[in-house]
Automatic annotation (TrEMBL):
Keyword Coiled coil attributed: yes
Stretches assigned to coiled coil: 334-368
PROSITE patterns (alphabetical): PROKAR_LIPOPROTEIN
Native source organism of the sequence: Flagellimonas eckloniae
Keywords, in A-Z order: Coiled coil
Domain VWFA, residue spans: 52-199
Name this polypeptide is given: von Willebrand factor type A
InterPro entries referenced in this protein's UniProt entry, alphabetically: VWF_A, vWFA_dom_sf
Pfam families: VWA (PF00092)
Amino acid sequence: MKHLKNVLGITIFSLMVGTTYACNLKNPVQKNATLLTTSTIKEKPAKQYVKIALLLDTSNSMDGLINQAKAQLWDIVNEFTHAKCGNEVRPSLQIALYEYGNDNLDSNEGYIRQVIGFSGDLDEISEKLFSLTTNGGEEYCGQVIHTSLKQLDWGKNADDLKMIFIAGNEPFTQGRLNYRDATSNAKEKDVIVNTIFCGNYEQGISTKWKNGATLTGGEYMAIDHNRQVVHIDTPYDDVIIRLNSQLNNTYISYGYLGREKKALQSVQDSNAAELEEAVVVKRAVSKSSRLYKNSKWDLVDAVEDDEVSISDLKDKDLPTELKGKSEKEIKQYVADKKVERDKIQKQIQELNKKREAYIAKNQKEETGELENALLSAIKNQAAKKNYKWD
């Protein structure tokens, strides 16, 4: 956040003046005080985060779980696109991913691997999900929870929404590290542990998956991870997919990451298409949202976020279409692409509203098992911190 403090003279405070912004407040609380000053001070509320760590069992029997997670990533993103913290702040979304219970992982580390730490790079998160493979192994729930709490930067902002979702199908009690100690650590860090048992509801209770959730005020859910998710085709899907291709053409790669990241964008579109057409649509909707930001490699986002100054870019940093262009020409090109992108994103968002209305009208069965589990818990726990949806 940027703070502008323009001190024009001597400032005299008769009382300290502050403004508190908090997600658990309906409105910012103003503490009034007598103030004699010639200073001009502009403050913005602190940035809020939603931090979600997905801990996925990648043992032999979990292929169905992994496939559902690949598809449901975009449901999580789309859910938080319209979320507000209190009445003002739009939270940023960060997702981390761990795998556990796989023989290919280091036994000295408890068959646990951090696949990606907290990140807002949605293409990279998708890439990591698609990189997961299954193999037999030992599943230590307590240890993977403890590891994620220790390794990840959860922050100290009490208004951030911090959640762990752990999914698997073996007893929650396995391993040397007691799950009760791990959940106690989570509670100290204000992290809610939600457990998703892949199997019979009662079996999950008897193997302590429910207890693992209730110790932190989290939710216990049982899902059929091998169930084929039913997606409803709508008259708007094909148009959204076409717009998605047009949207890709508004990205201008720059720097050493540019070409690689732009290629990754297309690869993740293809990965979504391999799952199902509806997943491509959901991903396109995510790409039209405020949460899909790529200022590290895209000039349009970088200029908007003050990540780079065009005058500082070297010719070697630019894509082929901009090499040899003047600063003025580059700025105009970026501005034109920004206008084009905004128009396409708006079209996708408007079509998605019609798409969601069509689905709601024609929905006969429940949505995907993992989708239900994740979104239900997320909205319930977000509401407790005064998160609201447009």
